[in-house]
Amino acid sequence: MDQGNRAALSSTSTSQITEFPINAEMGLTLDFGTPVNTALLVYILYSVQRIIFPSTSKPTTIPNEFKAGYSWMPKSHPPTVLYKTYTPKTLEPFSGKDGGRILLAIDGIVFDVTAGRNFYGPDGMYGNFAGRDASRGMAKQSFDLEMLTPVDQPLDKLDDLKSDEVENMKGWIEHFSNKYIICGKLVENGQA
User: Around 4, how many Cα atoms within 13 Å sit in the side-chain half-sphere?
Assistant: First the structure.
């Protein structure tokens, strides 16, 4: 820029704008304004380039054979759960001890609650219900041992429950039915 142009720039007030013609000796310059405008232009150009020339990637394939360190098949088939009839004595071994299955009964319906081992296992907060008829405890919202009928006695008839306690028990049955597998029914000792 020569001396005359510099003088014109320095004498320009804020309300007056002086235009300078672009000539061959000055060269062509593009003014993008702020760095934000420059970044936006670069982003737009990149996006347009990605739309016009999309990258081609290899399609993913589903593995069809065993490869070292990777197995696409489960290690073992989950154990089959059969619907059967239980008595208090035959239900008792299913308390989850030694890593076994955990079953409990509510109002004659036996549920496989093995998936909830943290709750119903030997060390769980409801572990006393495992392998037992939990009807009275669920109805009364009590997890005390006196809520459980001994396995060598007849099943609890639940005749003395109030209507709200029966509704509470039915709510637990619905909850368990939606969450766990129904795997049998509970009958009196000697009837299975």
Answer: 1
SS (H, E, C) 45-114: HHHHHHHHCCCCCCCCCCCCCCECCECCCCCCCCCCCCCEEECHHHHCCCECHHHCCEEEEECCEEEECH
Q: What is the pLDDT of residues 30-74, one digit of tens each?
A: 666 788 888 898 999 999 998 898 877 766 666 666 555 555 566
Three-state SS at 187? coil
- More confident of the two residues 28 and 51: 51
- Return residue ranges of the chain for CATH 3.10.120.10: 84-186
* Nearest residue to 189 via CA among 158, 159, 150: 150
96 neighbors 102 (Cβ within 8 angstroms): yes
User: Is pLDDT above 90 for 91?
Assistant: yes
Would you give the distance in Å from CA 62 to the centre of its chain? 24
CATH fold group of domain 84-186: Flavocytochrome B2; Chain A, domain 1 (3.10.120)
**Gap between the Cα atoms of 172 and 192, Å rounded:** 25
